[in-house]
Amino acid sequence: MLKNVGIVGFGAYLPRNRIKISEIASTWGKKAKDLESALCVQEKTVADFDEDAVTMAVEAGENAISMFGISPEQIEAIYVGSESHPYAVNPSATIIAEALGFDSDYMALDLEFACKAGTGGMQNIAALLEAKIINYGMVIGTDSAQAKPHDILEYTASSGAASFILGSKKEDFLVQLIDFVSYSSDTPDFWRRDGVSYPSHQGRFTGEPAYFTHVIGATHALFKKSKTQASDFDYAVFHMPNGKFPKEAGKRLGFKDKQLEPGLVVSEIGNPYSASSLLGFINLLEQINGEKLILVTSYGSGAGSDSFIFKTTKKLKSARNLKSFKFYLNRKRYISYSTFLKFSKRI
Amino acid sequence: MSISPVKIWRHQKIISSLLKRKGKIISWTIVRTPPAGYEQEAPYPVVLVKLDDGLRFVGQLVDWEEKDLKFGKKVEAVYRRIIKPDPEGIIPYGIKFRPL
Amino acid sequence: MKPFVIGVGVTKFGELWDISPRNLVKEAVTQALADSGITISEIDAVFVGNMLSGVLGNQENLGALYNDELGLKGVPAFKIEGACASGGLAFHNALNSILANKYKTCLVIGVEKMTDHKPEEITNALMAAAHEEERTAGLTFPGLYAILARAYCKKYKITEKDLASVSVESHYHAALNPKAQFPFKVTLKQVMESNYIADPLKLLECSPISDGAAALIVAGFDGKKMKRGVEVIASEVATDSLGLSGRNDLTTLKSTVLAAKKAYEQAKIVPSDVDVAEVHDCFSIAQVLALEDLGFFKKGTSLKEVIKGKIRLGSGAPVVNPSGGLKACGHPIGASGVKQIVEITIQLRGEAGKRQVEGAKIGLTHNVGGSGAIAIVNLLKI
């Protein structure tokens, strides 16, 4: 159990562009209805020609900073998780920190672990706070995900960013971080070699042995460690590679539909990889108040899951972002497949 | 197009002071025959903005619609990639404007 | 000591694929020398106006280069650069050296070779005349002037159709100039139907990419009037902010206003004394601003006058851009400012043939660099 870690500010970012599953399907001569129901996704976000994991992270980070009202020079660590860092060598973290106005007294790191790079960063910031090495740390999960044309991932790989500022002073907490565990193994379900534009995956192998084994494995481990079960929680958020997997995982873990509902954002935004579970979490936080117990389990291919127990505080009610997740969700412009092609491949 | 990393570095130091500043459009154009490096983005609007503190600035307009191109339209400064550099170059980030 | 233009030469302007910059200059200078009656050995100094030799062709040191080409050994030579005003500024510097009694007879060359390069590269290179912020924003020169056009049209309630009328006038004159890049008329309909380059400016409102060269022999004389020599009675330069974000008023080019004011004062004349003028019409709006900033028409009214024929051969007062201007004669950047002097000299001598402005006594040239960052106004008299 942690004593000194809580979320003191958070912010999201989604690009304006949306492409409908039906638009992609018609390009490839597939039946839209079949895909929409198989994936439980209607449309996804698409980064514009001049957006990438860094630019989106900057705006999400700005939103988190303005929610908490902190001066950026006070943030002592920034960990940025992505699988589409613009550089193979050159940290996104310092580019983002500089744009946000940090001075020089901060630790910075880029992380990669497929879709759980962001939550992995959160565990590490939490450790620094718990050990009282820092007072405030920022973690960002951001991705401008690419997928091979015609591949099934093309329907879901999307773009977005989520930023959290964590602190150690109880009076600042909007959400307290109670505990976390991880479940890891060497499972090659989805990967991308250096220099290659698009990821590869092993089809149905990404289901049971990959997503389900780790998400359920991590959550069970956390239940055992904290002596809790699904019914103790008010809500649960899972990583969303599509609309079916998180619902199935939730069901198997004993969660009911209404516990899962507010955390499910994939149908409208697709899967923004490192930002997926974190954006589902933000969407949930913007809708609730009072003291609620929340379970969040991410998943990163390769593979691993990070599972967290959060408890919201009464202070959450007063926390507002001018640019909330909902603001970005409702800000839409539909694009055609040809425009989508113009914008993508801009890693 | 390969831009000097040192130039980009000097430039990036001013960005954080301009981010989130708001202003109004005082004139604009839509560039249809772009210079080298900007081909894939055209056509794009470029606006002359008067920031709330009186400073004037020229920048591309992003996330826009036809109806945003008018005198006095409120905009805010956002962080975007300026151009796609050559495969080995440093990526230049900078300020563009977005309608409020 | 009074400076006189005593010899002029100019090549055809256009896409001159097979003529190198060296040969362009040789052609213009040979004409100018023949026209002046002097030999090349009498040249005391050479002033070269050019903008893009380095940016596009990786060649600088043009003073020495053209001396080499022309066989001028040991003679002082200079490259003068001020974006599109390079030619005019080269002329200005030659004049200053004559007025200072440093050099008596100067050769002024304006030259530009643009068509060796791709359009996007040229568009990019021309932006070297602008502010860094404008390049970062992905602006082009048409874009810069389009921003001015939009502000002007809003303030004075001008339509795109009104603005397009200046191109019609430029082409009317160019049709009479065998050296022009586009020696043919265009209709208002054609201008309006041409594609947008940077809204609201259309293709036929923009000066083209051109190659060309022009040359002048300028000499200082005490007292006696030179036969066929045209006296330079004023040459003034002024600057304004490099970029548009530094301008307080987007509907005027202060650099033009200031340079013109100083020039009229120096020559002790007023705008209505000018019979013929070559103004900087890189874009339709540039010409409109020039007509007003030079004092020919009141602010916001010049297009009304243009449509009435008030700048056209036969009815104009003054007649503007009898060469066809930058728009229709062509705009090899460094050459334009020098060509303007060539044209005015020919006009004042009465040697302009079909495009002669009857009884022209006083002429004006106006050359601008960038989006108004620098301007030069010259006044000449026969």
From TrEMBL, chain A:
A GO term (biological process) for this protein? Answer: secondary metabolite biosynthetic process
> Would I find Transport among this entry's keywords?
no
Q: Which InterPro entries match?
A: HMG_CoA_Synthase (IPR004656), Thiolase-like (IPR016039)
What top-level branch of life does the organism fall under?
Answer: Bacteria
Single Gene Ontology MF annotation: hydroxymethylglutaryl-CoA synthase activity
Keywords, ordered alphabetically: Transferase
Against PANTHER family, the record matches this protein to: 3-OXOACYL-[ACYL-CARRIER-PROTEIN] SYNTHASE 3, BETA-KETOACYL-[ACYL-CARRIER-PROTEIN] SYNTHASE III
Identification of the protein by name: Uncharacterized protein
From TrEMBL, chain B:
Q: Which residues form the ChsH2 C-terminal OB-fold domain?
A: 19-80
- What is this protein's name? ChsH2 C-terminal OB-fold domain-containing protein
Q: Which domain of life is it from?
A: Bacteria
**Species the sequence originates in:** Candidatus Woesebacteria bacterium RBG_13_34_9
Q: Which InterPro entries match?
A: ChsH2_C, NA-bd_OB-fold, Thioester_dehydratase-like
Q: SUPFAM superfamilies in the record, alphabetically?
A: Nucleic acid-binding proteins
Pfam families in alphabetical order: OB_ChsH2_C
UniProtKB/TrEMBL annotation, chain C:
Extract the InterPro entries matched here: Thiolase, Thiolase-like, Thiolase_C_2, Thiolase_N
Task: Write down a Pfam family by its short name.
Answer: Thiolase_N
Q: Where is the Thiolase N-terminal domain?
A: 5-219
Q: GO molecular function terms here?
A: acyltransferase activity, transferring groups other than amino-acyl groups
- What Gene3D superfamilies does this protein's entry cite? 3.40.47.10
Domain Thiolase C-terminal spans what residues?
A: 239-380
The family database entries (NCBIfam families) matched by this protein are listed as:
PRK06064.1
Protein name in UniProt: Acetyl-CoA acetyltransferase
- Lineage of the species this protein comes from: Bacteria, Candidatus Woeseibacteriota
